[in-house]
Amino acid sequence: MPRYAMKIEYNGQPYNGWQRQDGQPTVQGAIEDALRKLQPDFDKIAAAGRTDTGVHGLAQVAHADLTRDWEVFRLNEALNYHLKPHPISILEVAKVSDDWHARFDATERRYWFRLLYRRAPATHDKGLVWQINYPLDVAPMREAAQHLIGQHDFTTFRSSTCQALSPVKTLDELTIEEVAVPYGAEYHFSIRARSFLHNQVRSFVGSLERVGCGSWKPIQMKHALDAGDRAACGPVCPAAGLYLAGVGYAQDPFTGAAPINTGGKR
Amino acid sequence: MPRYAMKIEYNGQPYNGWQRQDGQPTVQGAIEDALRKLQPDFDKIAAAGRTDTGVHGLAQVAHADLTRDWEVFRLNEALNYHLKPHPISILEVAKVSDDWHARFDATERRYWFRLLYRRAPATHDKGLVWQINYPLDVAPMREAAQHLIGQHDFTTFRSSTCQALSPVKTLDELTIEEVAVPYGAEYHFSIRARSFLHNQVRSFVGSLERVGCGSWKPIQMKHALDAGDRAACGPVCPAAGLYLAGVGYAQDPFTGAAPINTGGKR
């Protein structure tokens, strides 16, 4: 059975998250339904990362085992045809070896977060940003973020329902850019690690926002981390601004287009 | 009765265009409904430009006469509150003189158009771009656009239902930028004139796309213009990529934030 890797973009707004659930609209369910149009006995795909309700994908990666030997361009086009009118798009398909695994072979996950400051409510970007109506100060947020970089016990920034075996993770990057927009500003967070705990990114952004608005001093981020206590976390921020921006592999299965740039506005 | 000018941003997707129609969702109707929450006997607003079904606003301008003397910040906030959950947002409110008119005093309208080339269907930008699945060549499009600049009889690029008294208009700007995006490109058209004929911008973009894909030579744009015949126009392009990007006045009623930049991506 040939195995195919897929790079997937999706708008998370209409879905109860990535993971298939009977009777609920999910991204995984929609893609599996499209695969069953090509192969009625198709079972399931495996993905690099699950995303929660309302979280978006810019370059999620999943794999599927198909009985037929497909030319990758034709498989890509056929899947996008059958995915209509879902806001889910297969950006690239690659044939991979039988033992390649979208989840277990991933060496890095990259997230991107859009936080919009503007008084007037978002219109075209509704559901695609977390909006606040006061400006933030980037310098203290950057200072606070430095305390999170490296290997730590991230119990403070972990959902109580997180199923990871250990709360110890290594955060490789947490950078923040400010982009001027009419009548306000956007703050873009780029966050990178081998793997994440459940709600870790939204716990980071929610706590950093407390620093940016002056409610927390930057050093309080270190105190929160050191506490090793969920109660020490800032508010978990909304899902709407969060994007799974990319997945890294020792050998990237996709060729062609360059990786998604998570540094600027999409 | 004090008169107030409003700068308005909206996502045109859920609306049958700007203009109020009984029993249909329209942008004008939604804003008038919000005004009636503040003043039950409120009648109607006047806008600088009507937009068709599916066309968006970045900085539409309209005015309203209210019986009460409002502090502009409070009026702005109250309108945005009552507009929820519509994807319509009042960016700015200004008090203007009783004889100031959003439509008749406008000296310039600016439109912006987003054309996306990518094979994979748009997800987050669905309904916000016109998507094609082949690349365009910008240089010949720019050459063709030069034939349209200046004062001309634009009968070729005018809807048969256009109600303007004359087909003669002066086009002040038609510039095209190419912006690289993952797996494709966007072409941004910035178009500026004192006023436009119905469907003029979409007729321009639809014809320029024919040049960009190699189907028309640039000089054919001049031939089409000279024909003065609707049948000589290229296909009128879809509404989804079109934005009313700004309205100019001899004296801008709004102060504060800078005008919307129509040159780059929003």
Assembly form of the protein:
homodimer
Q: Quickly name the level 1 CATH class of the largest domain in chain A.
A: Alpha Beta
Distance between the termini of chain A: 36 Å
Strand content of chain A: 25-35%
Run of helices and strands of chain A:
EHEEHEEEHEEEHHE
| Average pLDDT metric of chain A | 94
- Looking at the overall shape, the CATH architecture of the largest domain in chain A is 2-Layer Sandwich
Helical coverage of chain A, percent range: 10-25%
Subunit structure (chains A, B): Homodimer.
EC number (chains A, B): 5.4.99.12
Active site (chains A, B): 52
Function (chains A, B): Formation of pseudouridine at positions 38, 39 and 40 in the anticodon stem and loop of transfer RNAs.
Compact summary:
Chain A has five helices and ten strands, in the order βαββαβββαβββααβ.
Question: Could you characterize what this model shows?
Answer:
Chains A, B: It catalyses: uridine(38/39/40) in tRNA = pseudouridine(38/39/40) in tRNA. The structure is a homodimer of 266-residue chains. Chain A is of the alpha+beta class. Chain A is built from 5 helices and 10 strands. The first copy, chain A, has helices at 27-38, 72-83, 138-146, 200-212, 219-227; strands at residues 3-10, 46-47, 56-65, 88-96, 106-118, 130-132, 150-153, 168-181, 184-193, 242-249. In chain A, strands 1, 2, 3, 4, 5, 6, 7, 8, 9 and 10 form a 10-stranded mixed sheet that branches. The model of chain A is unreliable at 256-266 (pLDDT under 50). The A-B interface holds A 9-11, 56, 76-77, 80, 83-84, 87-92, 119-124, 126, 128, 181-183, 257-258, 260-261, 265-266 and B 9-11, 56, 76-77, 80, 83-84, 87-92, 119-124, 126, 128, 181-183, 257-258, 260-261, 265-266.
